[in-house]
Amino acid sequence: MGQLAVVLLALFAQMERTYTLERAAHARAVATAKGRRVGRPVLVDAAKLEWAEHLRDQGDTIAEIVKKTGIPRTSLYRHLPPRPPAPAVRADGGAAVGRDGVS
Question: pTM of the predicted model, to two decimals?
């Protein structure tokens, strides 16, 4: 009998958790529809991010950008778009060829 009570309590707790998640999702959707920003505010200055992107385009490493801008490394990775992958180059200077024969 005691095991049944524990199972029922767990069932009610799970139902309440599900309903809480649904209510929160609905509140976020309503706020977004009204044009309000949802979530934590962005604390990184847009001008600093623009400068960081410029530095990265010049070839600076992430460590150098962190020192110059003061923006934490994780924030840089979150806000800066990833670099396009560089093409692989063979030791003799030619382009590397993949398994499918396409370089």
Answer: 0.48
